[in-house]
Write a structure and sequence with these properties.
The protein is an alpha+beta fold. The protein has helices at residues 10-17, 21-34, 79-117, 122-129, 154-160, 163-183, 208-235, 271-282, 292-298, 354-375, and strands at residues 36-46, 49-60, 70-77, 140-151, 187-192, 195-200, 244-259, 264-269, 287-291, 302-310, 319-327, 337-340, 345-348.
Amino acid sequence: MLGNVSNAYFPDVLEQLGVEQRHIRSFSEDLAANGHVLIPQIELKIDGKKKVYSLLSTRTADDSFSYLNGVQGQFVDRTAEFELLGERERLLEEKLRDHAIIEEKTRQFESLANRLAKYLSPQIYNSIFRSEGGAVQSLARKNLTIFFSDIEGFTEICDGIEPERLSFLINRYLGEMAEIAIEHGGTIDKFIGDAMLVFFGDPETDGDRNDAMKCARMALRMRERVAELRSIWHEHGISKPVRVRMGINTGYCTVGNFGSDQRLEYTVLGGPVNLAARLQAAAEPDTILASESTWLLIQDIVQGEHVRDIKPKGFVQPVPVYRLDGLKDGTVGPTSMMRRGRHVEVNIIDDRHVGEAIEELKRIQEEFEARLGDQE
């Protein structure tokens, strides 16, 4: 580029090359003051292409090599190096930008998931977002305990209060009932106005008996909580007392996704669901009615009695109906106890059977010790 330049004032050469005046002044001033100069980046346009150079110069004096006396220097092409640096910076910027985009998308996903969680039962939510359980993927026939509840005279309550009070009433009621259902392990199917459908046994089950027990306890707690809330509603101008009817039935239902490609609903279908709804409709206010199939599973823990046989719409034979009044004295809530070791797994549905499990484990231990002694 420079060719064979000799006997030329180098700042003039730099000017002819198109170097900016600030670099030329820096070259002259630093060389005069310090005897050397380094300009790491000089941008030039040569043949229409952007080029980057570094200029390193120093004043030399050597008596032995007079031809070296004067100003020596290098004008180094660093275009490729700066292009690589530029590419690195671009990649870093893209990485930071991608990271910011990922963080924003993650926040959006979390926000969406949190909003969606309000529309799904916790068990279904976990099945979808954490790949737990396979029940939500297909239809299945399962023995479930179904619960229906409904506020008695809700239409009259709606007609007599302002929309704001009505909103407070229904939101507080459904919120409290949903919390109780979740605490007892129920899967909330849906809210139908003031009505509520909950089932036990899918996507998780503790066995038919334990599922029915949990449902009964849930219903009794709901009735108790509604009574506690009446004073709060009365303080907010809701004078008509809120009273709830409840129905429980156990039987084989079809459970899973129903709908279309555009919208699916995870729900239960079948005769047992219809019977639970009929029992709820037949119940007196603040009363819990259960079918015989449910009663046989829970009769040892609840207080209640057979009230009558009814012939619900759509059913050929009369159905025995039992009223649940409360838990028997000394009843302890059944728990699903599980302990898993390297070789032994113990699963106890009812904690009243812990003693029996301990005795069984002792017998197993004695048998294994005897076998071990024979081998020795």
